[in-house]
Amino acid sequence: MTAMPRHRRQAILREASGYIELGELLVQQDTPVPPSGQKLLQRALNLLALLPEPTRSMAMAKLLEGEALRALGRFEEGLVALRLVTEQEPKRLEAWLGMGWCLKRLGRLEDAIGALEQGLHASPREPILLYNLACYHSLAGRVQAAIEHLTKAISLDDRYRDLTGAEPDFDPIRQDPRFVAVTHVTV
Q1: Is the pLDDT of residue 187 over 70?
Q2: Is 122 helix (H, G, I), strand (E, B) or coil?
Q3: Claim to verify: residue 4 and residue 92 sit in the same structural domain
Q4: pTM for the complete prediction?
Q5: CB contact set of 15 (below 8 Å; sequence gap of 6+)
């Protein structure tokens, strides 16, 4: 059996990435994946399964696998792939975010917080990690931690202030004066 050429392996990764991107466009948050989205995401997984080792176990392939599984709602399986990514490339924030997403939806909010804190340790100035940590702390009822992380996220990128209005994860703390102070700009 001949080895798969490098250009073919790269083409498979690009094609799988495209299917995942298209499939995720069809996924509505916290609703079942429509059949068309399932088909695209499963096609990506089938492509990734064609990759030979060690390519199939490399961070990029595992990240794509984890993202497809996460989007399909196969959270436990997605966690396995995403953990491998964080072990190989700790600064891959997509893997940390995906792990948090999976853990939150599995009802493991404390583990989701722990995963994002590990990601923040690896990439301390990533506002998206801080923002998501603020969301998870809000859901856990930890107002002070939520405010601290949200304040840091907004200080790094003011666009996160605008996202708070539509984010249901902040509903538990939305009326808290500290939250109002962080999220409202006075002129």
Answers
A1: no
A2: helix
A3: yes
A4: 0.90
A5: 44, 47
